């Protein structure tokens, strides 16, 4: 909320500078994000009047203007604005002036004629495009004919640019300061003042409002309070300059006098209003109801929305006139032809307003306030003040009385508290007189009942409903810096990680030890990426209100995020990458399940060279087996009593069918490893990449292995080499299992060292060679024993897979 100190000073005396007020307010409990001075950095920008205007002789769109800035001679200024005309009072940047973006204005020549300055638009002196009135959006700014300005004076005070604006970062519970009056109460309490506010003195005609309009609230829970006023003979015209200044200094564009008044009241009271063109209503009655399914509504922003039966609307007999608490409709828009208006002041169901605003992505200043709360006690007064301003600024007549379609109870809450309780909670020694003084500064009525204080909380502070809220108010105004500092008393527990936390941290540590860099990816992604790298068909979880189409679904794998990270780095010429991520995926058994199960996973992705070229070695690109080695080391580091095996798979379409495998531990699937399919990599723009993914929860639950110290063997080992000719369909795992099962108790190692296909090998076959190591830890092995075991291996290979010993 932008708080104008000029506006604030209308309600109370400001004893300190804006900077000091901001510092004090931040300490008191509402942080001031920014101090804005609209005129900062600007100079030599004055009020001028165009006394004469002639077309430029060498241009079809430039004009030569003679501008009076209260100097001895008029300035000649070349201007190309489409709305420039003689007799206008305008903004003039003199030679040497500084305008927005620190741009300096110099004397110059434009197509042969001298220009002694610049006639400015509001944007050129620092105004945001969004607050510039529509009539001046594409041209220079022209002061209203009745504006009391002095030629040659700096423009800053005339445009409200001499103001200092405090940007309050308001927390959700302090929505009472979303209006200037609420902010005035807050600042006044800091300085022990009582703010003074103008109150409406509305003149009405005898014609009753009820004869012109009827309003029906179908369900009191939709609009606990709903009031309207009708005004006739309205003259639509631009607002006076003072009103426009109040609006644009708070980030709102002036539209016309009626619309500007409703926005002004919203900023002043924190209470949204809306004005309808009464003559455009179909019939003489309005309903506050829920929309019909698929009912269409065209809002003031020009967009058409399909409503649901959960959206609150204000409707006549044929059409939706407004989306309650959010935005009015085009059908009843205030235009230059409007003669009769109905102004609405209401308190709507905040939950429905918020959900409707989210559902249609339609957040407005009105919805912000309706969602967070409105002062129930201000509804009637805000409506009367708006009506009074319309009678003054639009020469309208107010019909007699307000229409009260619904009115919530206006009984303020009473909370009982004691000074002893306050001091006990805060650890202070505040006297009862100080406590009563603080409540008085806040505008809370108090009544002593023995030692107990009965505090009547005004309805403008709807955030206060509990004893704890009162204690917080006392602490804020007493001063958080005055609260004593004490160490906590009680038994202290030594912190530490549980076994699950240790396991996850150890997994990350081991990945870093293997040379991988940790990344963190978004848990939200696209439908395609969420469903990728799944062995079985997944039931995905879609977010109800996604930030964008790229963040609609919860991830069911970590690999897609890693590939995005690789793409990001490759695009920046980082080609040798080894990434890993440890995090949760979101899995659902079927679409009927609402809340997905969160499972801890770990995934890695490697691309580029795993070894750079140097004087001794050539560069080595990543391949399936290099990453498989990393996975084996990682699994070994978990120290589980589980046999690790790999099973070739083609079930994951995003992986190369000949370079993909499931990872099994004790025949239980715990993950996969594989090279990204070339077609999928080409689609993403990826280089060759190898990925893996592990289910950490399954691995963690496996039985841990006990490590037993084994001394170095005293007796030498014996090695033998064996080469066999087998069909290409026979896998290394099959051969290794046969050798280990038939090699006897002294076979301690089986090492593959050669695979050959080609010349002298018949088609469809391959030659596979192993180095076998035998060792007896208790005695020296003899050739007889080794040869016997070796022959058993040869026989088993021949019998089980018809291998040919070479």
Automatic annotation (TrEMBL):
Domain of life from the UniProt record: Bacteria
Residue span, FDX-ACB domain: 713-806
Claim: Mitochondrion is one of the keywords in the record: no
GO molecular function: ATP binding; catalytic activity, acting on a protein; magnesium ion binding; phenylalanine-tRNA ligase activity; transferase activity; tRNA binding
Domain TRNA-binding: 39-156
Binding site for Mg(2+): 463, 469, 472-473
Swiss-Prot/TrEMBL GO biological process terms: phenylalanyl-tRNA aminoacylation
InterPro entries hit by this protein: aa-tRNA-synth_II/BPL/LPL (IPR045864), B3/B4_tRNA-bd (IPR005146), DNA-bd_dom_put_sf (IPR009061), Fdx_antiC-bd (IPR005121), Fdx_antiC-bd_sf (IPR036690), NA-bd_OB-fold (IPR012340), Phe-tRNA-ligase_IIc_bsu (IPR045060), Phe-tRNA-ligase_IIc_bsu_bact (IPR004532)
Recorded GO CC terms: phenylalanine-tRNA ligase complex
Catalysed reactions, as listed in the record: tRNA(Phe) + L-phenylalanine + ATP = L-phenylalanyl-tRNA(Phe) + AMP + diphosphate + H(+)
Main location (coarse class): cytoplasm
Domain (B5) ranges: 410-485
Places the protein is found: Cytoplasm
One Pfam family named in its UniProt record: B5
Keyword tags: Aminoacyl-tRNA synthetase, ATP-binding, Cytoplasm, Ligase, Magnesium, Metal-binding, Nucleotide-binding, Protein biosynthesis, RNA-binding, tRNA-binding
SUPFAM superfamilies in UniProt: Anticodon-binding domain of PheRS (SSF54991), Class II aaRS and biotin synthetases (SSF55681), Nucleic acid-binding proteins (SSF50249), PheT/TilS domain (SSF56037), Putative DNA-binding domain (SSF46955)
Record-listed E.C. numbers: 6.1.1.20
Keyword Lyase assigned: no
EC category name: ligase
Cofactor-binding details, from the entry: Binds 2 magnesium ions per tetramer.
UniProt-listed PROSITE patterns: B5, FDX_ACB, TRBD
Requisite cofactors: Mg(2+)
Quaternary structure, from the entry: Tetramer of two alpha and two beta subunits.
Family: Belongs to the phenylalanyl-tRNA synthetase beta subunit family. Type 1 subfamily.
Name of the protein in question: Phenylalanine--tRNA ligase beta subunit
Organism of origin: Bombilactobacillus mellis
Recorded name of the encoding gene: pheT
């Amino acid at each position: 909320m932008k708080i104008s100190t000029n506006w604030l000073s209308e309600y109370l005396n400001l004893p300190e500078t804006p900077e000091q007020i901001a510092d004090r307010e931040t300490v008191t409990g509402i942080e001031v994000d920014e101090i804005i001075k609209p005129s900062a950095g600007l100079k030599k920008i004055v009020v001028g009047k165009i006394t004469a205007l002639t077309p430029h002789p060498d241009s079809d769109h430039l004009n030569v203007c003679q501008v009076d800035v209260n100097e001895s001679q008029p300035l000649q200024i070349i201007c190309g604005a489409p709305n420039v005309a003689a007799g206008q009072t305008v903004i003039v940047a003199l030679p040497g002036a500084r305008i927005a973006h620190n741009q300096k204005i110099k004397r110059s020549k434009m197509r042969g004629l001298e220009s002694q300055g610049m006639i400015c638009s509001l944007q050129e002196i620092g105004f945001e495009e969004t607050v510039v009135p529509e009539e001046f959006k594409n041209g220079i700014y022209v002061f209203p004919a009745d504006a009391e300005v002095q030629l040659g004076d700096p423009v800053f005070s005339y445009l409200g640019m001499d103001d200092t604006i405090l940007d309050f970062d308001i927390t959700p519970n302090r929505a009472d300061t979303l209006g200037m009056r609420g902010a005035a109460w807050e600042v006044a309490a800091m300085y022990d003042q009582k703010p003074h506010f103008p109150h409406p003195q509305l003149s009405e005609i005898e014609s009753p409002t009820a004869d012109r309009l009827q309003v029906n609230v179908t369900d009191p829970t939709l609009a606990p309070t709903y009031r309207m006023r009708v005004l006739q003979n309205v003259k639509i015209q631009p607002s006076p300059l003072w009103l426009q200044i109040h609006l644009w200094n708070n980030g709102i564009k002036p539209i016309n006098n009626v619309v500007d008044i409703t926005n002004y009241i919203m900023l002043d009271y924190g209470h949204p209003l809306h004005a309808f063109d009464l003559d455009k209503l179909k019939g003489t009655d309005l309903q506050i109801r829920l929309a019909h399914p698929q009912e269409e509504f065209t809002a003031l922003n020009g967009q058409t929305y399909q409503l649901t039966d959960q959206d609150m609307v204000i409707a006549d007999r044929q059409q939706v006139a407004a989306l309650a608490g959010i935005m009015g409709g085009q059908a009843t828009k205030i235009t230059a032809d409007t003669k009769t208006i109905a102004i609405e002041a209401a308190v709507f169901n905040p939950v429905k307003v918020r959900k409707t605003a989210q559902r249609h992505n339609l957040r407005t200043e009105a919805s912000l306030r309706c969602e967070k709360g409105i002062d129930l006690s201000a509804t009637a007064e805000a409506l009367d003040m708006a009506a009074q301003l319309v009678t003054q600024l639009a020469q309208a007549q107010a019909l007699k009385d307000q229409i009260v379609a619904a009115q919530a109870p206006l009984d303020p809450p009473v909370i009982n508290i004691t000074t002893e309780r306050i001091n006990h909670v805060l650890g202070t020694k505040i006297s009862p007189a100080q406590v009563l003084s603080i409540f008085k500064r806040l505008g809370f009525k108090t009544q002593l009942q023995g030692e107990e204080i009965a505090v009547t909380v005004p309805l403008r502070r709807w955030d206060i409903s509990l004893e704890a809220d009162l204690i917080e108010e006392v602490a804020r105004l007493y001063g958080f810096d005055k609260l004593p500092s004490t160490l906590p008393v009680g038994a202290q527990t030594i912190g530490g990680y549980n076994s699950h936390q240790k396991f996850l941290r150890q997994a990350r540590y081991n990945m870093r030890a293997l040379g991988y860099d940790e990344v963190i990816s978004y848990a939200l992604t696209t439908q395609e990426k969420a469903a990728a790298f799944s062995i079985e068909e997944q039931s995905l979880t879609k977010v109800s209100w996604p930030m964008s189409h790229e963040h609609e679904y919860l991830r069911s794998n970590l690999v897609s995020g890693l590939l995005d990270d690789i793409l990001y780095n490759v695009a920046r010429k980082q080609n040798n990458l080894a990434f890993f991520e440890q995090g949760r995926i979101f899995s659902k058994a079927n679409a009927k399940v609402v809340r997905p199960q969160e499972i801890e996973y770990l995934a890695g992705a490697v691309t580029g060279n795993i070894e750079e070229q140097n004087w001794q070695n050539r560069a080595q690109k990543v391949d399936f087996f290099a990453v498989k080695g990393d996975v084996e080391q990682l699994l070994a580091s978990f120290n589980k009593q589980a046999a690790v095996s790999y099973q070739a798979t083609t079930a994951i379409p995003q992986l190369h069918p000949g370079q993909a495998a499931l990872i099994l531990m004790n025949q239980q699937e715990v993950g996969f490893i594989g090279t990204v399919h070339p077609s999928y990599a080409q689609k993403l723009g990826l280089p060759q990449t190898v990925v893996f993914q592990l289910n950490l929860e399954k691995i963690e639950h496996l039985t841990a292995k006990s490590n037993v110290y084994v001394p170095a063997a005293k007796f030498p080992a014996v090695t033998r080499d064996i080469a066999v000719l087998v069909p290409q369909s026979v896998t290394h795992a099959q051969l290794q299992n046969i050798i280990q099962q038939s090699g006897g108790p002294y076979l301690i190692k089986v090492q593959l060292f050669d695979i050959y296909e080609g010349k002298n090998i018949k088609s469809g076959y391959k030659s596979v060679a192993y180095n076998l190591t035998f060792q007896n830890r208790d005695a020296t092995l003899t050739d007889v024993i080794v040869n016997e075991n070796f022959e058993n291996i040869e026989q088993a290979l021949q019998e089980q897979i018809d291998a040919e010993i070479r």
